[in-house]
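Lecture notes, continued. The same structure-token format from the folding unit now serves as the input rather than the output. Read the line below as a description of shape only.
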């Protein structure tokens, strides 16, 4: 874990936990019960690009938060932990979605997992880049 003020770490862990819970909630599920919600939900997610961007952002954020909690995400062990966590959350999210959709695993779910992985990799890259820029700035000063 990162060696900073205990309050900051607790806050980072709390934000990470909230992020995971939000990622796992099947936001499409209420469409089964509410036509108004279904209209609003579908007005955004009927567009495949919105679906892709949302998956990528969720998992980029997850990777960034995990890297922060793990102390930067730079070591091979930290990167492996982030990759495993992204994979497990992605699989759990798809399972939650399938629970109300009433069908089995399809190519769409595989595509979502690939998009989640791409988002996770983007999050790791962003974390590594900001760390590199911060270190470079310190070296110049």
């Amino acid at each position: 874990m990162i060696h900073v003020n205990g309050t900051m770490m607790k806050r980072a862990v709390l934000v990470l936990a909230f992020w995971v819970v939000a990622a796992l909630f099947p936001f499409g599920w209420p469409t089964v019960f509410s036509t108004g919600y279904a209209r609003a939900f579908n007005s955004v997610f009927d567009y495949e690009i919105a679906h892709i961007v949302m998956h990528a952002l969720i998992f980029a954020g997850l990777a960034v938060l995990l890297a922060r909690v793990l102390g930067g995400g730079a070591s091979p062990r930290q990167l492996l932990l982030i990759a495993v966590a992204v994979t497990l959350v992605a699989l759990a999210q798809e399972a939650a979605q399938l629970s109300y959709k009433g069908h089995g695993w399809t190519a769409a779910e595989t595509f979502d997992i690939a998009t989640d992985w791409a988002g996770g990799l983007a999050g790791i890259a962003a974390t590594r880049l900001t760390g590199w820029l911060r270190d470079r700035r310190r070296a110049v000063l």
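Point for the exam: The helical segments are 6-24, 35-45, 48-70, 76-101, 107-140.
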